[in-house]
Amino acid sequence: MPTNAELALQQASFFPYWLDNPERPTEEPSLKEDIKTDLLIVGSGFTGLWTAVQAKEQNPERDVVVIEAHSAAIGASGRPGAILSTSLMHGMENSYRLFESEMDELERLGKENMDQFRETIEKYQIDCDVEWSGELTVAVGKHGIEDIESEHELYVKFGHDAHLLSREQVQSEINSPLFEGGLWSKQRSGIVHPAKLAWGLKRVAKLLGVTFYENTPMRKSKSKGENVIVYTPNGNVIARKVILATNAFTKHKKKISSRVAAIRDRIVMTEPLTEAQLDALGWKNRQGIYDTRTQLNYMRLTKDNRVLFGGRLGYFFNNNTDPDYDKTAEPYVRLVEALYRTLPALEGIRISHAWSGPIALTTRMAVHYQYYHGGKMVFTGGYSGFGVTASRFAARVALAIVDDVDIPERQLEFAKTLPSWLPPEPFRWVGAKITMYALDTCDEKGGWRIPWLNMVEGMGFPLKP
Questions:
Q1: Confidence band (pLDDT; 50, 70, 90) for 465?
Q2: 313 falls in which pLDDT band (50, 70, 90)?
Q3: 403 and 380 within one domain
Q4: What domain range includes position 216?
Q5: Is the pTM for the entire model greater than 0.85?
Q6: Helix and strand totals (H; E) in the chain
Q7: What sign results for the dihedral spanned by CA atoms 79, 82, 88, 89?
Q8: What's 230's domain CATH number?
Q9: Are strands 298-301 and 288-291 parallel, antiparallel or unpaired?
Q10: Chain-wide mean pLDDT for the chain?
Q11: Based on the number of CB atoms within 10 Å of its own CB, is 367 exposed (0-12), middle (13-18) or buried (19 or more)?
């Protein structure tokens, strides 16, 4: 007999809820001729779109072209939980782990970036269901309380409006038997509809004069004189500068994939909640939520009061970014079971959508830059989550790099250094499989999983057994 979780998935669409929307814009024509441009952007996810908008805002006379292998936001930008954060480097603790001596400046830049992110939405009237409701980290178990107390110290140290919550206080924010405490960062954070944001940025970029070609994948590139030639199936682009905004989609450059793994993150979306279910949850302040489990889960509400619940990482051999397995119910069953344990008021609720997508995991879990053709082509990516807002900042720095503008950010370590090298296949696949299993079972079984995860953390991945 099927379990409740299996029954809940029987009618699910294995496609991102965000993209399953009648407001999704029609696709642009593909490139069918040879063209020239000042700046070519490869990819129209958040990095590419923020790059296009800022490039034209900085220099309206510059000719800017975007090519996209499929359509805008079809990659990671149309699939995330989309909880907004000021962090530029995948969370406060990860920033501190990586760049302790530069934290004051990174925090200042993160707040400035979020303010400018909000200004862009308001200036161009981008309708993207944004809610400035804060972000809430919830403690699961005693170790979780230690985690949020440690993080709270960092939040206070760097001037955030962050508040520790007792068990009773966190239960008044969201009703879950698992949550023992919380850390609520109340300002400059919230939730957004990521696809609507991406489509809005595309509209703005076109308004500013950017030309888009969709269903136009990059095949290869070469340097020729002062330009770069980018080859696509039916036309080539001669560009003075190129920004690769491809994040986890790295197959056209082996140098990128040697430092970036396409780890898959899975998400389920419920049907809209009834008033009784909403009352039972008590989620009146509608924060975006992360928990402290080793195999982290995150959750949020949508405008029409569905619950998004994410987690359950996976990896497929050779950075496969579109596995058939993730278009079936099986990989989501345990995620639905975790949803029911976490929010018992939703036990038995149907799942309308379930999907996964690659995130660009590096040993830093933060943006980095790689250079090609003497610096005329620059790769920008590696967010590992938190990219909805961090991509705007990363795009601004990428523009300064290709334009050779000496802004202070270029002197910070993140802009000058690379994440560590990752092992090739089959070692990457074997290591990932063991690590994912250890993450799934560490909280319950411990044992060998703890030294294994400690070893992986020693390699640079910030895992916390």
A1: very low
A2: confident
A3: yes
A4: 22-80+195-259+364-416
A5: yes
A6: 14, 18
A7: negative
A8: 3.50.50.60
A9: antiparallel
A10: 92
A11: buried
